[in-house]
Amino acid sequence: MDLLDTLVAKGLSRELPTREEAIAVLATSDEELLDVVAAAGRVRRHWFGRRVKLNYLVNLKSGLCPEDCSYCSQRLGSTAGILKYTWLKPEEAADAAAAGVAGGAKRVCLVASGRGPTDRDIDRVADTIAAIKGQSEGVEVCACLGLLSDNQAERLRAAGADAYNHNLNTSGDNYAEICTTHDFQDRVDTVQQAQAAGLSACSGLIAGMGESDADLVDVVFSLRELDPDSVPVNFLIPFEGTPLAKEWNLTPQRCLRILAMVRFVCPDVEVRLAGGREVHLRTLQPLALHLANSIFLGDYLTSEGQAGQADLDMIADAGFEVEGTDRTTLPQHRTAAAGHGGCGPCGGEESSSCATASAPACAPAEAATDAGPTAEPVTAGAARTDLVQVRRRGAGTDLPPNA
Ligand code: SF4
């Protein structure tokens, strides 16, 4: 296909595709899907080989947010039955982080709900970073605390943070449809503050919120312009109790096309497969490893992910390898330009972002959890509320985390 040959050539030379080419990727048919994955996979392997970086989320403060992001189970007015708790103590966060590091994660993403941190919150996070780095040598730490005020990014950097996550989530034109308490430019400003302070920027998107193909392409082009080091791609988990609870409009094939488009537009950045992968990609998750070079290990902020061992098995079975702390994630031309200490490319989670990890308090609806021989076939794009599990273990509970 001429389109794919063109996109591979551009991806290998870091040339920006046209918007029309990016939209054309999203418009490819299911019959063309493996060709699309193979083409974007060439770009992925060129810049990142077969390495998969593992990242681990620690939700420092959960729920009770005054903002109204419609996709978020922690939003103002959310009735999702998520865990709600205030700041973890530094040692509690460090213990949770250590479980992720022991499971193979080289980055820990510290996330807190809320519009943005107070200066006292920055002190708390600084203490937490110190506790984590004291306990887990060589680990990268990314903070995701919302909108930053003057000098807060510099204070996080001085405290040892390697990266800062703040997702753009959707296009500037669509932003008012998903949130009214802050705007797109607020988010751009925070990412730029982090970059100016020497933090590796992590910023991504959420797909499946009812946006158009043009919106998806627009937000990815905005990200390319912003030039974060890592781009988490989240797939909306439609939590019961949030305004987007009925937005079940993704299929595994659609998710792969979105990831391929992101890889073509942002060829040499860490593209992270983030929240919603288990729910929307389901059995096609291994194909996504040909597109993304990074995933979250274990649970998300408010929802449970698949078992950490299942992730490790999937990576090995698909012929990929977990990236060790001795490897730098990003290509040399990006780390040389960034000048971040020697932490490698730091750059970013959540989707970690407070925007992603969501988890609904779903009712098992009509779906059967026993997919035995008499189970009905699953319709692509159907609501899979049975796959959404509210997090009930790890940070904020007495149960050990999933890693
Ligand atoms: S995404 Fe972040 S800022 Fe928005 S409602 Fe959720 S926790 Fe609050």
What this model shows, in words?
With 403 residues, the protein is an alpha/beta fold. The chain has one domain: TIM Barrel (Alpha-Beta Barrel), CATH 3.20.20.70. The protein is 35% helix and 12% strand. The protein contains 14 helices and 10 strands. Strands 1, 2, 3, 4, 5, 6, 7, 8, 9 and 10 form a 10-stranded parallel sheet that branches. α10 (252-265) links the parallel β7 (230-235) and β8 (270-273). The chain is globular and about 55 Å long. The model is unreliable at 339-352 and 355-378 (pLDDT under 50). It binds iron/sulfur cluster. Iron/sulfur cluster (SF4) is lined by residues 65, 67, 69, 72, 74-75, 113, 115, 146, 354-355.
Task: Quickly list its features.
ten-stranded parallel sheet, 403 residues, globular, 35% helix, alpha/beta, binds iron/sulfur cluster, TIM Barrel, 14 helices
